[in-house]
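Lab channel / #folding
Pinned by the channel admin:
"Please post every new chain as: sequence first, then the structure tokens as a reply. Keep commentary short and put observations after the output so the thread stays searchable."

First post following the new format, from NK:
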Amino acid sequence: MDLCDIQTIKKVMSRHGFTFSKALGQNFLVNPEVCPAMAESLNADGKTGVLEIGAGVGVLTKELARVAGKVVCVELDKRLFPVLDETLDGFDNIELVNEDIMKVDLNAFLSEHFGGCERLMVCANLPYYITSPIIMLLLESRAPLEKIVVMVQREAGQRLCAQVGSRQAGAVTVAVNYYADSEILFEVGRESFVPSPKVDSVVISLTPHGKPKYELKDERRFFTIVKAAFSQRRKTALNSISNTLGISKDAVGEVFDGLSLDRNLRAEKLTMEELINISERL
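Reply from TO:
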């Protein structure tokens, strides 16, 4: 069954009375080159377990099942299960779970569903409306994930993979850099989907750090400062931190002066080390 053929997809969905849900950000991939490339980028083997978040009609799921020992797909839309039972027929290493990934205890879930797998990875076409929360869930859980390969909106991918201290950087850039190494693998045009979204996409790869890359006295304080610094992007980092956290400008200014930082710097100009030093001294 060719799951990249729109007529085939329509016939399968029609048989099961399925319609697209805009609320769930459902756009189905019809470019036959994308999913095999995503699956191959994992360099998975028979001892690899892959978590997929959202199955669509199973086009990526099938490719993952061909390269990995086991695939577990967390799918929120239960209406898709009869469709997937048909499109994934013949594969005995796929498990479908009807859950909201944002409500799952990730480490407990991985332990329960991937017993016997020596390597764990994530591969998914993420809904645009919830991209960053899902990625931060995966990273903040510190689950033993070797690699995370996901398709996201192009602008989001560029920000997630930007260099800290560059114009495209945001608070999520800092967070991703703290937990993992990131890179953009390839671009995916909007014409690759049905219904076609209004934006292009990219496939990115995140490789979580096995051990903390940076030493922090207070991780929570660090991320509080980072979020505050980027919360008002048109203002200087000093003013944004002061306004957001209710700390006097003089106090924040003294920290900048002590670190020989220009008080007029915006947050996107601050390096990882400078952000860490600000949080440690403030």
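NK: The mean pLDDT is 92.
TO: also worth noting, The longest strand covers residues 180-188.
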